[in-house]
Design a protein that fits this description.
8-stranded antiparallel beta sheet, elongated, about 15% strand, about 475 residues
Length: about 475
């Protein structure tokens, strides 16, 4: 059989929706030797066992109920690994890279209907039952089936034995193929040369994880169900490739194969560019160790978290949170009283210390910021501090004493604290005042902000000095 006849056995594609791509074979296949048929039968048996195991793991019973824990309560390298697997999709769609499903805080509610519309239009998912059916289809066949059929035709046509340049020319030379079909075969050739039979497995497995994240955001499944269903998929994906390059590149080859375009065409190339940005990102998704032991780290997570929170609260710690994941716990001496009823839309936590007369003249407040939400948060704080300094200096001009420390740094335990101090003693008031604005990185992802404000009658000496010693108290006991 000629190469041309071999390769034209595949028909073109149904288009548009994400699950709509399918190749169909037509015509007879030459009889294979018995030995080859036996090997194929054994492979099919093994494949069937794997599919049965996957199918058995997808079971959603009853109605939707929220999980008893949030991601911040159980976050781990396993969960970060799962999120990293579909980081290209998340980044391309301006979603969070660290959150299951890519939406955190108020965004979850704001975009829920859009997520539902995308699941319905792209995947035919309208409820919990549809989640099961879609995942089963994707894990059983996905686009891997069509890819392997294309590879089989390329093998029979002996095109896989050619150099890349020769193969591209050979495939493009078939007049009976549409431009889209030519691109599919060319992409299949590239993927096979890099990853063999697993050339686009990452495309199907990463999408399965992404779909589960979206279904969690849509509240078709809860977080625990999402993680339970994601784990075996992530484990299979991890076994299939040696590193993050394999996962990401097979995903990208799969996208081009589905789209019917070359990897250097516009839409595909934009996604490759996103991938390169993610690879070079400090503390990015691909810094999660690829060989992380993927295991259930959320089992009994709610109970463990509840016990930890109770123990910490009993010991005097107060949570300061940022978004879906960020949390640190702060503790001050007992004479600093946490204002539990203080209502702040920004997540601020407030402590106050009374003076001997029973009035409040010293306050300490904390906020936590996420680097993902505010990528330049350190620079932002420095600019804000200098802006405050300029404004207060101008306001105090000709009215009395104003002093500023300028931006300073000091070490408090393991934290590198930056701060600026302002002192006011103005003629038109009866008080003098010291304010500190301070910030300290918490790991690679968060910035803890603290403000200290103390004012008293000019006749009295202030309880805090201008040398920054109060910050040793403010940042002394931080759990993260």
């Amino acid at each position: 059989m000629s190469k041309k006849r071999m390769i034209t056995r595949l028909l073109s594609v149904a288009t548009a929706v994400t699950v709509g791509l399918s190749f169909c074979a037509c015509g007879a296949t030459p009889e294979e030797p018995k030995e080859n048929r036996r090997e194929e039968a054994e492979q099919k048996d093994t494949e069937k066992e794997r599919k049965d195991a996957e199918k058995a793991s997808i079971s959603l019973e009853g109605e939707y109920k929220p999980a008893s824990f949030e991601q911040r309560d159980v976050n781990s390298d396993t969960i970060r690994w799962m999120c990293s697997a579909y980081a290209i999709y998340s980044a391309y769609n301006d979603k969070s890279l660290e959150v299951v499903g890519g939406l955190a805080g108020d965004d979850r509610e704001w975009y829920r209907e859009e997520v539902k519309e995308a699941l319905a239009g792209g995947w035919g998912i309208y409820d919990r039952k549809d989640v099961e059916d879609t995942l089963e289809d994707l894990l059983e066949e996905g686009h891997r089936k069509q890819y392997k059929e294309a590879v089989s035709e390329l093998k029979k046509a002996e095109i896989l034995e050619l150099s890349s340049g020769e193969a591209m020319v050979e495939i493009a030379g078939y007049d009976s193929l549409s431009e889209e079909e030519v691109c599919k075969y060319q992409t299949a050739y590239e993927a096979y040369q890099k990853y063999g039979e697993n050339g686009i497995d990452g495309w199907d497995y990463c999408r399965a994880l992404q779909i589960l994240g979206d279904c969690y955001q849509a509240e078709y499944i809860n977080l625990e169900e999402c993680l339970d269903l994601s784990l075996p998929i992530a484990q299979e994906l991890q076994k299939t490739y040696e590193n993050w390059d394999g996962v990401a590149e097979s995903y990208l080859y799969g996208y081009s194969f589905w789209k019917g375009e070359r990897t250097d065409d516009y839409d595909s190339q934009k996604r490759w560019e996103v991938y390169e940005e993610l690879k070079n990102m400090e503390s990015g998704p691909y810094t999660v160790p690829y060989d992380t032991k993927l295991e259930n780290t959320w089992k009994d997570g709610a109970k463990a978290k509840e016990k930890e929170d109770k123990d910490d609260a009993k010991a005097g710690y107060v949570s300061v949170k940022a978004g879906e994941l960020g949390e640190v716990k702060v503790r001050l001496p007992e004479d600093y009283v946490w204002q539990e009823d203080f209502d702040s839309s920004t997540g601020m936590v407030l402590f106050e210390k009374e003076n001997p007369e029973g009035g409040v003249d010293l306050s300490v407040s904390y906020k936590l910021r996420s680097k993902e939400e505010f990528p330049d948060m350190v620079e932002m704080e420095e600019e804000s501090a200098l802006s405050k300094e300029k404004t207060r200096r101008e306001s105090a001009e000709g009215k009395g004493v104003f002093e500023s420390s300028g931006i300073q740094t000091k070490k408090v335990g393991d934290l590198d604290v930056s701060y600026i101090m302002f002192y006011d003693n103005l003629d038109d008031t009866s008080i003098h005042e010291i304010d500190y604005y301070a910030w300290a990185p918490i790991g690679d992802s968060y910035l803890l902000l603290a403000e200290v404000s103390h004012a008293d009658n000019k006749a009295k000496e202030l309880m805090i000095d201008k040398e920054g010693l109060i910050l040793d108290t403010v940042f002394a006991d931080i759990k993260y």
